[in-house]
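ok trying this again, last paste got cut off
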Amino acid sequence: MQTACLFKGPYVSRYQSFSPPFLSPPHRGVFITPKSRPRNTTTSGKNFVIRAMPDSASSPEIDNNGALRKFKLNESSFLASLMPKKEIGADRFIEAHPEFDGRGVVIAIFDSGVDPAAAGLQVTSDGKPKVLDVIDCTGSGDIDTSTVVKADANNCIRGASGASLVINPSWSNPSGDWHVGYKLVYELLTDTLISRLKKERKKKWDEKNQETIAEAVKQLEEFDKKQTKVDELISKRTREDLQDRVDYLKKQSDSYDDKGPVIDAVVWHDGKVWRVALDTQSLEDDPKCGKLADFAPLTNYKIERKYGVFSKLDACTFVTNVYNEGTILSIVTDASPHGTHVAGIATAFHPQEPLLNGIAPGAQIISCKIGDSRLGSMETGVGLTRALIAVVEHKCDLINMSYGESTMYPNYGRFVELVDEVVNKYRVVFVSSAGNNGPALTTVGAPGGTTSSIIGVGAYVSPAMAAGAHALVEAPPEGLEYTWSSRGPTADGDLGVYVSAPGGAVAPVPTWTLQSRMLMNGTSMSSPSACGGVALVISAMKAEGIRVSPYSVRKALENTCAPIGCLPEDKLSNGQGLLQIDKAFEYAKKSADLPCVWYKITISQAGKTTSSTLRGIYLREASYCNQSTEWTVQVEPQFHEGASNLEQLVPFEECIELHSSGKDVVRPPEFLLLTYNGRSFNVVVDPTKLSDGLHYFEVYGIDCKAPWRGPLFRIPITITKPKKVETQPPLVTFSKLTFQPGHIVRKYIEVPYGATWVEATMRTSGFDTSRRFYIDAVQLSPLRRPIKWESVALFSSPSTKSFTFSVEGGRTMELVIAQFWSSASGSHETAVVEFEIAFHGIDVSRSEVILDGSEAPVRIEARALLSSEKLTPIAKLNKIRIPYRPIDAKMSALSADRDKLPSGKQILALTLTYKFKLEDGADVKPQIPLLNNRIYDNKFESQFYMITDSNKRLYATGDVYPDSVKLPKGEYTLQLHLRHENVQYLEKLKQLVLFIEKKLDKEAVQLSFYSQPDGPVTGSGSFKSATLDPGSKEAFYVGPPTKDRIPKNSPEGSVLVGAISYGKPSAEVSDQGTDPEKNPVSYQISYQVPPTKVDEDKGKGSSSKTSTKSVSERLEEEVRDTKIKVLANLKQGTEDERAEWKKLSISLKAEYPKYTPLLAQILEGLLSQEVEDKVHHYEEIIKAADEVVESIDRDELARFLSIKGDPEEEEFEKTKKKMETRVEQLVEALYQKGLAIVELASLKGEMAALAANLGAEVVDKPDGGQGPDLFEETFKELQKWADKKSPKYNTLVIIRERHSGRIGTALKVVGEMMEEEGDPPKKRLYEERICLLDEIGWSHLVAYEKQWMLVRFPPNLPLF
């Protein structure tokens, strides 16, 4: 089923033209794939190329907006095209005003993090530090350093990883407190860097492992040469051990999974500041490198502006920050090259190559990392909020944010509220990317394209950029918007894209990429280009003493842009046009004495009651396009917080002349007198005489006294008048559509009522070189993200392609076909396209089917309104959602270091703890219906969850967009972290319901359909298919799953969910099979799992036969068992308590000398004791174990176990249970005796004698002494009774093999125990394996396993 647009993350175009890893792959043949391109984009216009209007000034080769007059680049113009500045007039401005190059301006870069070591990011043009602070706002690099240790006499401390660390004696630490923590270094690095490191490390590890394998094989070969026969038991076992060693090593090669090196961190206060040192020896090949004592201590970056590099291999820069009085260390690395690239475009300074400078080389930056490394660089609410806090703390002038996603509610949400405060109260200019989800309309992303207080920037490409940076054979004759750049308007009618700037550049990237710079393109690049331009304007304003206001700066920018394109609707693609920095500054100078005012516009339809207001007029549906409507516009002057009532608000009065760009369609009043309290007026829009297609108009206000100011406010009016489908069956064909590079065709169609899917055909002709087309289809529906289908069609030659997608009947659909801007740029052939759309639909009575858990089926009616359709229902339940409530809810106030809002309010956190258990491994996904899938349009600040197992091993993290994770069988804890300043909101969520969704895979349930209501019970009346004629109805039933098909471990209250489809698209466009989700139109179907059936056997046997024992005998047994329970419950923590226990045990043993349960309990009591005399203690255990063994008639036990009795016979079952208990007690006694014998031998120094007798034949000793072969005797007895897969038996096997020198066999048994024990195995098994590997001398495997120990058994849960 088609879904709403949902994109998240940085806005970098997928289709790059330069340098891996941003190079699009080569394409062959003709095929269509789903689009996966940079986020949020929108387009507007008709059948024309979007062009930039030339500026009056010019240069020999390139005019001021980048159009090529002569298609020729010299070296300087080529270098200039790599970092485009001429297009926005930045080069002219700096040439005229060298000191206004961004000096005095601080820009906050909200991104994936900035590398302070990257080229061009060290100093500004006037020698000041370029990067003032580097902050990880997400917490992804946080380390728990709350553990405090003291150094010993040798200046050594125990690190959090368990390593012994040497402190440098020169480090000042007056308190003597050393805070320790550790981090797996891969948790700090990008996937690209991790992949490179893993490749390098695996190569070295393989070399070492191959050497070890070769040595093991050599030992085996030498053994075989010496041994002619292997009949002798010892020789046979020795050879098996050698073979086990070889097998183990080979298996390690196959199962190798590098979780990365571990770094130990030490934090201390030197009396002035907090200091940080890292031990990175595990990253280095040379054991002398990376030692803690050799580390040059760092402090919070903003204090000394120093950074480190983990190792020469990774070349990864990091900085440190310490929070919460030394209890949290933040190691800051970048989550991708994106942030450094963005910072470089805005501010890079290259004194040796000024043509590669960023737009504002004199500006300084604050790096605010909002991209969480745990989530693959996706932004989080925590990161966004902390970044805004940092902006105010550092008194930033500008924010650049090249991140975003689609949104359901424009200009809404917690982040928008905080942004409004920062802009309006603290006078910060906020610039952001509009998105990369074009070319369809209404594809601008949040927050850049949907938030009133943010300047959303579209992406422009000039001929110079195309020829130079993109290295095209033939550049376009004039500049244009990139095809993928998002377009407006927003869903509530605002323009969306406000300005445009160059959307590609070759800019600095982090050092770990092993290159200085690379090409990226996207609105991610246009935003810092615009932001750098704004920094120039602000720099000049500050130098000239002009008060800086985001209101006046924005007005200067928008009213001086160079238009791109020649049609009114081009503004939906390009905003007001291409920034012109020099003209913007002249405007700002001229406006210096005018009030700093922004004009807030809210619009509602006259006479219509609605809960929401609009920011523009957007007539998209047919009903609005075929009638005249009247709209009420409210204009409210908005001053900055703190404006004087008497000096600014009361005197404010403007006489405004209202203009319309299309008076025949849009009619406002002529004049408006505006005061501080605002004024409303009505606008009449009459689109009835317009032709089908896109139309754009504006109502704008001009100051009558100062018309040079240009529009003080604009009201965008967008009209998409759809074409009505007249034919039956409904078919629309667009013929002879011609395309050149960058050409966009838009068609608007009124989707017929009853249509639910489209089958479309695209035919191309007229060209001989390959072509790439974007095809988008977009519909808008209330309270939903835009419903968008998209595809990229690649044609190597003229051909035909068919595809299908869902639609919503009765709503306007925009169909956009665009030839990619650089596709076939060297060809002058025109591509011709014919596009045919056939509408199909089956209307059903239930958009969502809910089976209530009873045996009753659900009746469904279906009808075809447009044409005959084949009704072939398919339904499948392929997931289960199990609801959970939290077992614990903790509220806490967060640290003031990072989590105190500029308003002074403290952010609170609510941590909810959920427990769930998996009986089998499964793919699971947490679902929080209230909060999921909304980050910007959400009133809650943030949400973040972590899934850990019983050993605290972290398996998954997630936020508003949860991902599936493969979990093995076991018990798990999910912690959900919610943040907000309002305690009442959080209180309401203390019992928040969370679903754990599991994929069913093999247990998926295919549902059946019936023509009769009794069909699910009788099995008759099966319904398969029917033909629906137009207007006719067909009814049928969908039955619930049969009880035997309900997946096991489906508790009452859980919900089986899946999809149901009804129609059957043509075979050319669909390969559905039995999967309804492959149908272009599917709906949700769910089944409520009912209570489990009553156990029919429950209660049977309760009236057992009357006991044959007398009352006195039964009383005696009860007394005996009670005494044993008293013994079991006695504490043994002190000497007195142990004495009491011993006294009672002796008394009971005298009273019941051969009673096995008593003797077993005495043995258990001894095992729980902690005593100093270990030798005597183990001797007592051996004695107690012998007493248990001797109390059991083993001959009788063996005879019974050899009998195959009748399980239906009650007496036999009773005896069987008793005998099984005896076996368990016997095995436990022998097991504990074996362990005690080994411990005793170790204490007495008799291990060599014990090892010499392992595996030897056991002979009876006349004197009954306990010689060294006692362990072997015990082991052989255990062999008779224990399950060979039991942990007890295998533990003694490991001891036996280990002390026999057969380490390979011992390792094999450890591995088998891990597999049998399930996941997660106990820590002791992994520790045993490390000891065995260390004993055998395989150091590379010891290091590998030790690193894994910190993954499997971390000492603490990770921080949020």
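PB: full thing came through this time. The CA atoms of residues 113 and 334 lie 4 Å apart.
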